[in-house]
Amino acid sequence: MMQQAVITTVIMLMLAMIGSPVQAQEPSALIQYTNVAQQSVSETLTVYGQVWADPDAVLTVSLPHSGLITRLTVRLGQRVKRGDTLFELATSPAAHMQYLQARSAVDYSQRELNRLQRLLQEQLAVNSQVDVARKALQDARASLQALEAQKQNKTAETVSAPTDGIITQLAVNQGDRVQADTAALSIATGNRLIALLGVEPEDIRFLKPGTPVLVKSVFVQGYQAESHLREIHAMVNPATHLVDALVPIPENRTDHLVLGSRLIAEIRLKTHTGMVVPRNSVLQDQQGSYVFRVVGGTAQRVAVTTGLESDQWTEITSGLQLDEAVVSAGNYELKDGMLVREGK
Fold it and tell me: What does the pLDDT look like over 260-299, one tens digit per residue?
């Protein structure tokens, strides 16, 4: 009987424990938060473009006379040093013949002047004849010097780079017969680069020279440079159907940039002071934009009105006060009134 009583007591205790309600601990969410800050915010116009050589720093190498390109030693985009061979040019027979004729004209004019001077001493010529002969010699020498400056006295010559730079245009090929004053190639000198941007025609009215610009590289991660608009063209580029705008890139920020590479530029149109929060703090649903504010260890949903945005922050124009704590990470799982705890 006593054993049966003990068993009955144990069963009753177990039933009592199973039947008694266990108070559940209220769940909390792991979050990170930050305070509402105040800073300068800018209304920006995002445009795209390319790295290119500054047009004011490009030298064009022209051919001094007609001839044949017998050897071409550079390629488009190649870096060259001052004095490096660009190409070899064989003077055309016609150009060299012109030089020989000019040299013969000098010899003839000199002999004619000498003859008339002797006749003048014998009183068989007059001073005016000698003056005409002296003038003819001066003209012949000037013509000869001009042809020598064009190097038509040489049957072949080597054309060298006048400065350090990059070959940006190449208009000749090995074996080409070219005429005098032909622009053979262009060299972009030094580290003077620009961002050649394309702007929609309807946005031109917002821009003016001197407007601040933040230039970012598509290919060089983390690259950005502060600059300004230098030129805004007054016609649509027929190739891009956009208006070209030029932004100089600071010389100390040209490292690792390659001509022709893509850029993103943020043109800052207007600047004012506003309250900002991390961009991840702002959520949206059918009711509009909202954030979670941290008050007494709980998350409170707050409807907000947003203004300008960047890739890192969002401006808050109403709904929050300066220095209030808002959830910046872990807010996607929150509900209004949920307990929160801060984590790393």
Answer: 999 999 999 888 899 999 999 999 999 999 999 999 889 9
Same domain as 257, residue 223? yes
48 pLDDT more than 70: yes
Query: Please, which residues have CB within 8 angstroms of residue 159's CB and are 6 or more apart in sequence?
Result: 61, 63, 85, 86, 87, 88, 89, 184
Q: Tokens standing for 92? A: 């055309």
Residue type for position 241: H
Using the structure block, give the residue that is written with the tokens 């001839």. 67
What is the count of structural domains for the chain? Answer: 4
pLDDT band at 122 (very low <50, low <70, confident <90, very high): confident
- State the average pLDDT for the chain: 88
Which helix (H) or strand (E) element contains residue 341?
Answer: strand 339-342
Same domain, 321 and 289: yes
As a dihedral over the C-alpha atoms of residue 92, residue 97, residue 100, residue 106, rounded to 10 degrees, the angle is -120
Q: Identify residue 90 by its one-letter amino acid code.
A: A
Query: What is the predicted pLDDT for the residue at 23?
Result: 46
The tokens for 237 are 């580029």
CATH number at 81 reads 2.40.50.100
Stretch 322-332: mean pLDDT: 90
Which DSSP string do the residues of 259-298 spell out, in sequence order? TT-EEEEEEEEEEEEEEEEEGGG-EEETTEEEEEEEETTE
Domain of 107, in residue numbers: 94-149
Residue 202 DSSP label: G
Q: Please tell me whether residues 288 and 265 are part of one structural domain.
A: no
Amino acid at 257: L
